[in-house]
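Structure tokens please, single chain.
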Amino acid sequence: MGTGVDSTMVTKYFHMTFVMGFLFTICLSSVFMQPGNYGKIAFVSDRDTKNQIYVMNADGRNLVNITNNFFNNTNPSWSPGGTKIAFSSDRDGNYGIYTMNTDGSGVQWLTSNLDDGWDPAWSPDGQKIAFVVGRHGDEEIYVMDADGTKQVKVTNRSGADYGPAWSPDGKKIAFVSETGGSGSLYVMNADGSNVQRLGSHVTEARDPTWSPDGEKILFVSWEKDKKGIYIINADGSDVRRLDNSPSSVDNPAWSPDGTKIAYSLGVENYNISVTNADGTETLSSSGMWKYDIFVMNADGTNQRRLTSGPTEDKESTWSPDGEKIAFTAYSDIMDQIYMMNPDGSDQVRLSTNSCKHFLPKWSPDGQKIAFNLFCGDTSFQAYTMDAVGSNYAILPVTESLSGWPAWSPDGEKIAFSAYIDGIVGIYVIDVRGNTVVNVKKGGWYTDIAWSPDGEKIAYTAHGDVEGTSKIYVINADGSNLVSLTSGNNDDWNPAWSPDGKKIAFVSERDGNLEIYVMDADGSNHVNLTNNMASDTAPTWSPDGEKIAFVSDRDGNEEIYVMNADGSNQVNITNNPCDDRDPDWCCQSLIEPSPTSSPPVTEPFPTEIYAAIIISLVTAAVLVYIFFKKRS
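Here you go.
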């Protein structure tokens, strides 16, 4: 008989090899794919006027406002699968419970039939949400299905019950009750039965949260002289304090792997400042008390601050994969500069302090933005910053009044309106601050705009010989002044088309503010918007095909885009707040040059590579062993 291998046997062993390799791959891949110690956190902040929910990495990077509206949004809570966030909001009147996708889309109102709902908490299987209903000391805990149906009251006691937190197995709910003491800590079955108090001496408890293994419960104590984060065994034994801060703390939250705790800490006597390019400090602000997000190890060591600034940052909550932290930021109130895609997506705030920021203007290479800044009762100033919002620098002029900055097409100069050495007028400064030249004096000039070839400057003159605002053009050296508009109406906001052949502008000649376009010599005026609303602030797209502008036609000021002939007018911001001062970024960024680097392909995920390699190696080893034994 030969020593060859039977083909049926070979097929059998190849099948066995594949199955074993697949199972082995799953086991090892689960190790490779475990999330790291740092994940993502959701939290609450008021940095954008109202309480909003933000998501950030656990090291404080990649901060994103995901609610981004004019209402209060609080109490974020991740679903176990990491695909939804439950939260409280007053967007429909009273506070209610809502869910949304983790990018802020897909908002659903779950408690439209109840008064005032808050403190949502997902069950571990994602099928139910516990929450609080009521007010004025008569709060009770309810449980409902995750779609808002089957709402059941599970507490019915004298005094308020609040702060529900599910145990990891979904069988119990920890909560705080004013029954039998001021803020006592309790545990009950998920259906409301078998209520037990934990730690008979624990008072003024808040924010209970279970450890991922279900063995311990974190809570905050507000008891006088004992304020801090505490940990207690789930059976009520062994209470001990974790933090060492004398300040108030709130909202402790375990990381999914149980190794870290995020929390809010009250910070006293904080100071925020902006540093100028020369190293001097300006625009400082201070206050006596605020909250920021901190993180520490589960044993209380290595306490680190994640957020800072003049806002209240609270209610941190980890994403289930440990990759993000959502939070609520509680309002700097002032005007801020944001960046977004032309379709309105990916709106990101760039400005970094609580002063008024307005009239942003991109540098031609897209690396910097010039803007006006106004703080308190001081005069406004022209500033520049990097396009990511860093490195504020004031234009190097000594007087207190400057504004309406406009970059020359080559990016080497900035024209602006200012009061210097007793002269009001238009000035041009080189970007290194070496020379300042007055090109037009003796009037109140705004809306400064360079022609695309850098040879001319258009601007608005207010209170001219006819007592109205009119648009003029002057050579960049101050010669050859030409009036482009005339009459008894106001005209302003000139904006050159990219080819320099036309100028868009605003006029009230038809009874309200409309966007017009004219030839660069002032002829052929055409109304593009032609409606009963106020339409202002035109800015051309780099290819000259579209014009962005501001309109209040939908009840508040929003940014619209239309074709250059006035057709296809579309609202691209569409929110309850006022959005103003659009400025298109840059031809060089929209159409990369032929010499620019090719696009970088997103790398294949490392864990997938690991799984493939492990599978192939495992299969090869098993096949080798099989044939080795048969030979």
